[in-house]
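A.,

Following up on our hallway conversation. Structure tokens first:
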């Protein structure tokens, strides 16, 4: 006899109970100067949309400062919280409103290209998946980013958003062809 997973052994589909809030997708208030929209779809290994995932984002502000008092360069002073959370809809679509982050210094004196850290929670996952969103208009900075350049070329492409009209699109593929590059923490 084989027993199925219990709710305590998977992160979903119980995610949305108490984890989402009305302005969760708004890292900055809508209409803020420099506000951008990033949206996409989450797909499973068969290429089907994942309708019950949660996308969390964490990032610096446009000056490269975090909304946290422990930022060694000083905390962000803008109307920016740095953290967003958005559930996917029935078609696996999510969207956040944020600002493009600034570059970040590394401990060894180099610079990380502007990026957004992303966590994905979904049914069937025993732990969150972690990835990054890089910006297509930062080609030169992306070519020097220590983490991005440590990946094979084909994996790098899965981390760069694409221009989609007035916003950016970043699809997340959990498995299979074009799988998004994920990182172990």
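Then the amino acids I'd put at each of the 185 positions:
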């Amino acid at each position: 006899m084989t027993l199925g997973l219990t709710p305590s052994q998977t992160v979903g589909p119980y995610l949305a109970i108490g984890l989402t809030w009305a302005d969760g997708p708004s890292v900055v208030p809508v209409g803020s100067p420099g506000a951008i929209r990033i949206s996409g779809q989450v797909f499973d290994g068969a290429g089907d949309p994942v309708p019950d995932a949660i996308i969390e984002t964490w990032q610096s502000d446009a000056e490269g400062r975090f909304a946290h008092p422990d930022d060694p360069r000083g905390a962000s002073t803008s109307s920016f919280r740095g953290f967003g959370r958005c559930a996917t809809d029935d078609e696996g679509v999510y969207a956040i409103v944020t600002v493009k982050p600034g570059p970040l210094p590394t401990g060894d004196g180099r610079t990380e290209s502007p990026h957004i850290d992303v966590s994905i929670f979904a049914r069937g996952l025993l732990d969150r998946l972690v990835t990054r969103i890089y910006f297509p208009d930062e080609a030169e900075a992306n070519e020097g980013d220590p983490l991005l350049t440590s990946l094979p070329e084909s994996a790098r492409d899965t981390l760069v958003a694409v221009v989609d009209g007035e916003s950016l699109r970043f699809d997340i593929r959990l498995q299979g062809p074009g799988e998004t590059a994920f990182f172990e923490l």
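The chain has one domain: 8-173. Curious whether your intuition agrees with the design.

B.
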